[in-house]
Amino acid sequence: MELEPGANDAPRRRGTVIGGRFRELVFPCLLSSTRCSRFTIHFFPFSTLSDLVSSPCDILFAVMNTICFDTSGPRGCVTLVQNENVIASMELSRVYGHNETLLPAISILLDQADIKPGKLERLLFVRGPGSFTGLRIGIAVAYGFHEANPELKLIGYTSLYLLNRAGRKAGQNRVLSLIDARKKQVYAAFFENDVPVSPYFVLKPEMLPGFLQKYGISENSFAIIGSALEPYGDLLTQLFPQCTQLPVPSCLSTLLAETLHDSSPGENPSSEPIYIRKSDAELNRNKPR
User: Fold this and answer.
1) C-alpha distances in angstroms, 170 versus 137, 163, 223, 267, 275?
2) Which strand ranges, in their side-by-side order, compose the sheet holding 120-126?
3) Which fold has domain 171-245?
4) How many CB atoms are located within 10 Å of the residue 142 CB?
5) 10 Å Cβ neighbour count for 92?
6) How far is CA 204 from CA 181, 200, 208, 210, 232, in A?
7) Closest CA to 89 of 31, 24, 149
8) pLDDT digits (tens, 9 = 90+) for 92-108
9) What pLDDT was estimated at residue 282?
10) What's this model's pTM, rounded to 2 decimal places?
């Protein structure tokens, strides 16, 4: 059941188990008495508790709780991890903004797993580039959690790097990550064997061949991945006919979770946002009046 915006008579309830390979819990009203939507949570099953912990001591002393989230694009997502195992993942509705869905989604996942916010040890987030508004909401939430719990470890990766990791999962070692930056521009970065070999840049898509040439990157056989494929797929095919265009991941929070398995990721994590291009507000502020 999908509720129309403005419905205010939906009952609040803990969840409805629908069944299947994983459990799907539907929450019809979570945001406020006047704004209702549906969240779908996928709980990934484990056959025994030993799948979650490596020894009985872990049960008592070393369960590492982690929240991963992405607000860099139009559809946000949140993933809950215990130790290095994904427990549940939630995609947020496009009907509402990240400012209305992110905190309720985190609260729901923690509540369903019976984890108090103070028991979080790590928070991973996408630090950019992408939607200016979405990124600022995500950064504010991350910093807010850290302010409440200074022991919480903040870990941020770029959306460009995570797209590269999706390409590597598809068997590609040379990946051009491209994100639609609007204004007829794209955010771009080239990766080889998980390591960036170009700066993280914003430019017009037709300038990409010159961009690669400038940094000594061969155009032989690489993969392209990212949201820029939707508006510029045909142009990119003309520019790089020998290259493979990969499906765009629906969400990056599970890719964030997978970095926990990597002791030496190709990108250094940081808690600082990366925007690459100035926002309209910043540009207009500097215009003469």
Assistant:
1) 31, 11, 10, 19, 27
2) 23-27, 39-43, 85-91, 77-82, 65-70, 120-126, 153-157
3) Nucleotidyltransferase; domain 5 (3.30.420)
4) 23
5) 25
6) 9, 14, 7, 11, 10
7) 24
8) 887 788 989 999 999 99
9) 63
10) 0.80
